[in-house]
Known about the structure:
Elements: E1 9-16, H1 21-35, E2 39-46, E3 54-56, H2 65-75, H3 87-98, H4 100-107, E4 131-134, H5 150-156, E5 159-162, H6 203-215, E6 219-223, H7 226-233, E7 241-246, H8 261-268, E8 275-280, H9 292-305, E9 311-316, E10 323-325, E11 328-333, H10 339-348, E12 351-354, H11 363-370, E13 375-378, E14 393-396, H12 401-413, H13 415-432, H14 435-453
Parallel strand pairs: 1-2, 1-4, 2-3, 4-5, 5-6, 6-7, 8-9, 8-12, 9-11, 12-13, 13-14
Antiparallel strand pairs: 10-11
Amino acid sequence: MPSSDPRLKILQVSTMDIGGGAEKVAWNLFRSYRSRGQGSWMAVGQKRSEEPDISRIPNDRYRSRWARAWHAGSQRLQPLIGKVRGVARVQSLLRGIGEPLRAWENGQGHEDFNFPGTGRLLDLTPERPSIVHCHNLHGDPFAYFDLRALPRLSRQVPVVLTLHDAWLLSGHCAHSLHCERWTSGCGRCPDLSLFPAIRRDATDYNWLRKRDIYAKSRFYIATPSRWLMQKVERSILASAVIESRVIPNGVDISRFRPADKPAVRASLGLSPEANVLLFAATWIRTNIWKDFQMMRTAVARVAERGTGKRLVFLVLGEEGPSEQMGQAEIRYVPFQKDPGVVARYYQAADLYLHAARADTFPNTVLEALACGTPVVATAVGGIPEQVDDGVTGFLVRPGDAEAMAARIQRLLTDEALGSRFSANAAETARQRFDLDHQADTYLAWFHEIAQRGST
């Protein structure tokens, strides 16, 4: 019989509550579900907020007393990290003594699934969830989830997996770049250092273990881009799919919206006469998926050729001293927790730059578009599904700094073109990338899923 309670009870699972792209998507949906009167909770590997409806998965609680004691010893050394040489190695040694089998498996290149609290997910909410909505189930250094719990979990409650990268499809990496071995079993991995890195090439073992887990499971699958869904359809995950949907990420267009540029610049200490470019990411200098050097080179070439104005390249998400690069200034801005402050940087910029080697559906591109800031980006992953080339911005080949420089130059020197792209960008975001639409689409689907399960 159908349930008489129309309210969904949604438990989201995420690496952490406050963080980068995937974590931000989960957090926004958590709040959106709750604002629509649904039961909304999160279970996370790392908790950073004070939100009472978010619980940390209690992995440590269910480890042996021996393991907990050695782990506690390693944690007491945490204040010395960065101050005393060798502390990290001592911490690793202590944890290895506490869990020698786990340490051996990690040393062999086996992905770490040793998280016993995963089996207690359904005990973390005051009401039994009607839907478990999972986001990234991996992290480095914040791994937290045991995939081996998925077969039992998916028999107990409908499980929706929203993929934000391709880790579930591979023997270790979140994006395989040009490697296609994930389609046929991995092994002989060309790059073990790709995030999340492993020490030895056990990618064939990891791939087979995931395949066997999925063979015993049944999932509803969502991706933000068609590009990633097409990978799912070719992968070991395909056989476990009950139903799949492409649901683009959304942004809060009441916050990320066009604003009075001179006023916003004044609030941020930026000259109203400068050409301002923006890039936002985490781990900007070391992020393997982003190509910061390509953007630096492109900006340098634009500065050499000149635009008639001073050039400022804002790099949001990392601290560091400003750099002068010819006629251009590179200004580093620390990570900003307040979304309202983040929005002001997009509103202040003339253009948003996004050079990536791999990317699924970056929130930063959506935030820029919503603020009416045209985007110049590399045509990789799902980015061509976000940026309409020649309408809301320009797409260039990955690694082609000269093409990026030419597109930047054109938009900065053609005021009419820049204004047209800006209006198009804001309108596209309103029509296609509104957070309200994303949340409503998920909730409509969840109601369908829950109704099937109650009949």
